[in-house]
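Lab meeting notes turned into a lecture example. A postdoc, R.K., suggested we walk through two folding results consecutively so the class can see how the record format repeats. The first protein's sequence and structure tokens come next.
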Amino acid sequence: MNLFAIIKGWLSQSISTSIKIFKIMIPVSILVKILQETGLIVYIGDALAPLMSVMGLPGEMGLVWASAMMGNIYAGIITYFSIGMELTAAQITVLSTIILIAHTFPVELAITHKAGVKAGAAFLFRFLLGFLAGVILYNIYNIFNLYQNIPTGIEKIVAISENATLWQWALGELKNYAIVFCYITGLIIIMDILKRIGVIDLINKLFYPVLKFLGIGKEVIPITVIGMTLGLAYGGGLIINEVKQTQLQPRNVLYALMLMSLFHSVIEDSLLMISIGAKFSGVFIFRFLFSLLIMYFFVKITQKWDETKMGKWFYSTTNK
């Protein structure tokens, strides 16, 4: 195969995968914008307020979590700063951890569904486990009296304007879509090159023992690693692409997506939360160990289920 044919193949896959993701992201972005502009998202935050106290957080933080779940992490941070409430480092870490587990639901759940897992199952998985992680981490910090100080020197790091015009918002969204396209194109090229030079086989050997222990098949290990490091949208997009080309087992797709759902974009998002006062011990170490432990038990329980039962509870029509 000549170089021109290879490049043509890369571009074709990139456009095809990006279109699938944009068909999800664009209407969802518009819906979220409407919810934000009409103030309906506030009601979601009010409904979450009782759960916040169980995690040692003020009820107002329910609006922060709702903003992150309905919008994205940046929307949650904007809401947090706009409330102007001082939290201890422990509280910021708990809040950051639950946001990192459960955020950007409209887009990420739709991508998860397209990749083969029911959106409802993925929602409950991330929301309930996000809440559980918050409760556990709060009690750990409380019992050992850790990070009970209010951090100083924390400034607003989000450059997004809360009062942006509709035109500015649209331009910002177009920029985001362009970035997503570039990421997807780069990842598809990298994945293909790594396959051709044998690096994928090396990655499989390095990560296979841990992910095998969790019950994840080696054919989805490289994609799972990408999703964990760069983000669920990219990992999910690559899974959508791989499903079209190869016969990935639905069970392996499920386990890969669920692990990515709990622990993804570990570098960028973790550093983002640390920059607003969260502690590394919570947003990275605890979340990593929590995700591995949850996946261990999730796999142990579901590996005894037959495919009919798995399909009823977890597989979307895409993966049946």
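The second example is placed directly after the first for contrast:
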Amino acid sequence: MKKLNAGLIGYKFMGRAHSNAYRQVNHFFDADAYIVPRAICGRNEASVKAASEKFGFETYETDWKSLLKRDDIDFVDITAPSNAHMEMALMAADEKKHIFCEKPLAMTAEEAKTMWLAAENAGIVHQVGFNYRFVPAIRLVKRLIDEGKIGEIYHFRGLYLQDWIVDPGFPLVWRLDKKVAGSGSHGDINAHIIDLARYLIGDFKKVMGMQKTFIKKRPIVESMDGLSASGSASGKMGDVTVDDASIFMTEFENGALGTFEATRFAAGNRNSMSFEINGSKGSVRFNFQQMNELQYYNVDDPDYQQGFKTISVTEAVHQYADAWWPPGHIIGYEHTFVHEMYDFVQSIVNNTPVIPDFKDGYMCCKILDAIDTSIREGQWIDV
């Protein structure tokens, strides 16, 4: 069987999720190649060395440019902060290495378009990490829409609610620095529901939004570790330069209306991503915290059967579900990364298109930028 040597840049939250997916793909899926965790990269040598041993990588690097120049790397997996994505991806494309890159694809739509065109011109496989597309229940929503079970779409309303920075004493981690992250809740979690809406409903026509930063200063710390930080703040405070909450409205090209809310200040919501779609023939509801279930309403049901019904999306007839456990034995968050990595592997080996690709990443960034423009100008902006 063909081998694909992986070079992973980053070893914290997303790096851990991706490296786990490398190990699991061939344990459950009949992939046409298997992934070899060849090298992992991070700036702190002691930490990346420990990560390489824990995650099962053969070697490690402290310079991502050295990683990309290695002849024994077939694809690069970018989980670094957003401000590093473009430079890394452009070099990877120049080195003719396939690329998997986390979302948001870039700091701006212009950067994302540059990455997309470079990857296309290099003739490599390029995928962006919108892992929620790979939930079996969301694939079922897509099927119901495509088969006309929902009818003409009227509404999409999406929510992504978190609460991990509600405490004003939470430190000033890199995700709260616009120069590194690009944006706050907007690009971090709004991007996910924007991509899902594009996938399920279609392209956006125009947008209008608003944002708020509730806590404008936070303690400065000595070191950061993923979503947390450590070290003495010494009483020093720094400016939060990203949004804490972002809300916007849209009209889709097909005439449907959409509302979107993303916030890190919804106390009690650790990671609550949900959406509802209403159409002329029915509705669907999905909540990621019950990711193995889909709520479906059919207007044609007789009066005595009216109401939302729960579909358990664990049967083998559902996409990806057949690779896992018997019906009713649920899967979780980490499995979405296995699914997207499986598709990535198959695309590389068989030279077939993969979705979502860098074009999808660019389109999401284009919408994010249009919303930012709308907020600055206080008006509707065409996408």
